[in-house]
Write a structure and sequence with these properties.
- This protein is an alpha+beta fold and 112 residues long.
- The chain has one domain.
- Helices cover 32% and strands 31% of the residues.
- It has three helices and six strands.
- The strands form two sheets. Strands 1-4-5-6 form a four-stranded mixed β-sheet.
- The longest helix is centred in the C-terminal third of the chain and has 27 residues.
- The chain starts with a helix and ends with a helix.
- The relative contact order is 0.19.
């Protein structure tokens, strides 16, 4: 990530090195979620914060709207939404226990 490498406020960063266990709502089994980024930054108040960051398309960050006719695509989107929601809740709890913050970035955040 060029942004992290060139930003003086980014002290450390890694990609897919944090593994968060989560319970899948689909099969009710434990799985491993590899969060996209772990970034340690110095904020505008010079306080060091650690952020767990997931990058997703905006469309995948909202539950799917039921169509008139329920297609395979819709059921796939519902399944993906359920799994992502479980992952993100696990990541929030994982972060909170460590004093970190969990953030989901979309194209709106990355390309304002």
């Amino acid at each position: 990530m060029v942004f992290c490498d060139k930003n003086d406020n980014v002290l450390e960063w890694s990609s897919e090195e944090v593994i968060v266990p989560y319970m899948s709502p689909i099969d009710r089994k434990m799985h491993r979620y590899f969060v996209d980024f772990l970034v340690k930054v110095k904020n505008k108040n010079s306080v060091v914060e650690t952020l767990l960051i997931e990058v997703k398309p905006k469309k995948q960050c909202q539950p799917p709207k039921p169509p008139k006719r329920k297609t395979r695509k819709f059921f796939h989107e519902v399944k993906a939404w359920g799994i992502n929601s479980a992952k993100w809740e696990a990541a929030r709890k994982y972060s909170e226990l460590r004093g970190w913050k969990f953030k989901i970035l979309t194209e709106d955040t990355l390309f304002p």
